[in-house]
Amino acid sequence: MESSNAPGGAGGGRREATRQKLYEAAVTLIAEQGFSATTVDEIAERAGVAKGTVYYNFASKSVLFEELLRHGVGLLTASLRDAADRSAEGGGSRVDALDAMIRAGLVFIDRYPSFTQLYVAELWRTNRAWQSTLMVVRQEAVAVVEKVLREGVEEGELSDEIDIGLTASALVGMVLVAALDWKAFQPERSLDDVHAALSRLLQGRVGGNR
After folding, report:
1. Is the pLDDT of residue 210 over 80?
2. What sign has the CA pseudo-torsion 57, 59, 65, 69?
3. What confidence score (pLDDT) does residue 4 get?
4. Which residues mediate DNA binding here (predicted)?
5. How many CB atoms lie within 10 A of CB 89?
6. Chain centroid to CA 191: how far?
7. What is the pTM of this model?
8. Is residue 13 scored above 80 in pLDDT?
9. Contacts with 1 (C-beta within 8 Å, 6 or more apart), sequence order
């Protein structure tokens, strides 16, 4: 998963690159064999660094995974927000913005399918040390969709009968589940094809039949 270099010059950039390698190694291994079965030694080996480097950057495997979730959902949130902003700058409607976010979500999942699989699986667990962090970052992503829905209702573009919170969660969930189904069971379909199908659902259920 890509991220920009942190402030602090070359040293900060090198550390961020190392953390990026650890994120990528961890998400791949945990997707393959589960959190409990994945060791710090394996993460270090996959990332091509010494075991001590893992602990220099993260206090434990649990902290690494918690930061991985925060990092990944942060990237998703940023991509959703950017899609909505670009749509607005181009003069699009609120439904257009929602449609742009659906596509951005699909692009993200197409790029990071292993992370998305882990994220969705962790949403349903209740005994994890990072559960509260996961709920916070999940709400940050949903809040981006809620903002567009709220603006649409306030401006009269969308029905005021819409349950904003539940609709936002439903849209995010639709993209996550449909995309995972696409990657696992219908990989022959193109991103454009999947987006078109979800776009028709959006237009009919949220935007209204046009």
Report:
1. no
2. negative
3. 39
4. 39-58
5. 8
6. 16
7. 0.85
8. yes
9. 20, 23, 24, 27, 71, 72, 75, 112, 115
pLDDT tens, residue by residue, 137-157:
999 999 999 999 999 999 999
Plot region of 132 (φ>0 → left; ψ -120 to 50 → alpha; else → beta): alpha
> Does position 168 have pLDDT exceeding 70, yes or no?
yes
Which residues 6+ apart lie within 8 Å of 27 measured at CB? 1, 68, 72, 112, 114, 115, 118
pLDDT-based confidence at residue 32 (cuts at 50, 70, 90): confident
The one-letter amino acid at 83: A
Q: Cβ atoms within 10 A of the Cβ of 196, count?
A: 12
Mean pLDDT of 109-125: 89
What are the b/e assignments for 140-176, b being 16+ CB within 10 Å? bbbebbbbbbbebbeeeebeeeeebeebbbebbebbb
Residues in the chain, total: 210
Q: Is the dihedral of CA 187, 188, 192, 196 positive or negative?
A: negative
Which two three-digit tokens encode residue 74?
């942060």
Q: Which of 92, 84, 192, 54 is nearest to 145 (CA)?
A: 84
DSSP state of 84: H
Q: Compute the half-sphere exposure of residue 64: CA atoms within 13 Å on the CB side of its CA.
A: 28
- pLDDT tens-digit readout, 48-102: 999 999 999 999 999 999 999 999 999 999 999 999 999 999 999 999 999 999 9
